[in-house]
């Protein structure tokens, strides 16, 4: 499993102009299914992606990201081995595609559907 940390080097206006391309990049972490969780840092100085897959695939996806290719952000890829929660960590470390969802449910419970 990997943590990808994007650090912005440009104004938020410039970042926002590239955000759609960042999410829709056909070779990126989102379109290739590598991303499990993602969101902006607070304060908004960058973003974080939790990704699962082969290191070479994660590296290629990050290298193709419009934030990186245009130079508006740097990206650091950190690999880690999940150990908590214990009952979910074994599933995640074996590469199960449903592990992130199971871990989220174990930590936060089921998410209610909105009324209406």
UniProtKB/TrEMBL annotation:
InterPro entries per the UniProt record, alphabetical: Dimeric_a/b-barrel, YCII
**Region Disordered, residue ranges:** 86-116
Domain YCII-related, first and last residues per copy: 3-80
Matching Pfam families, A to Z?
Answer: YCII
* Similarity remark: Belongs to the YciI family.
The protein depicted here goes by the name YCII-related domain-containing protein
Instruction: Give the organism, scientific name.
Output: Streptomyces rameus
């Amino acid at each position: 499993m990997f943590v990808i940390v994007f650090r912005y080097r440009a104004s938020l206006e410039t970042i926002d102009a590239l955000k759609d391309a960042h999410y829709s990049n056909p070779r990126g972490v989102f379109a290739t299914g590598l991303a499990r969780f993602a969101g902006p840092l607070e304060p908004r100085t960058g973003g974080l992606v939790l990704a699962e897959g082969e290191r070479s695939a994660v590296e290629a996806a990050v290298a193709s990201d419009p934030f990186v290719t245009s130079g508006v952000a740097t990206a650091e890829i950190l690999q880690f081995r999940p150990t908590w929660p214990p009952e979910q960590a074994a599933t995640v470390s074996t590469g199960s595609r449903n592990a992130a969802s199971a871990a989220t449910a174990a930590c936060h419970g089921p998410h209610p559907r909105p009324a209406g």
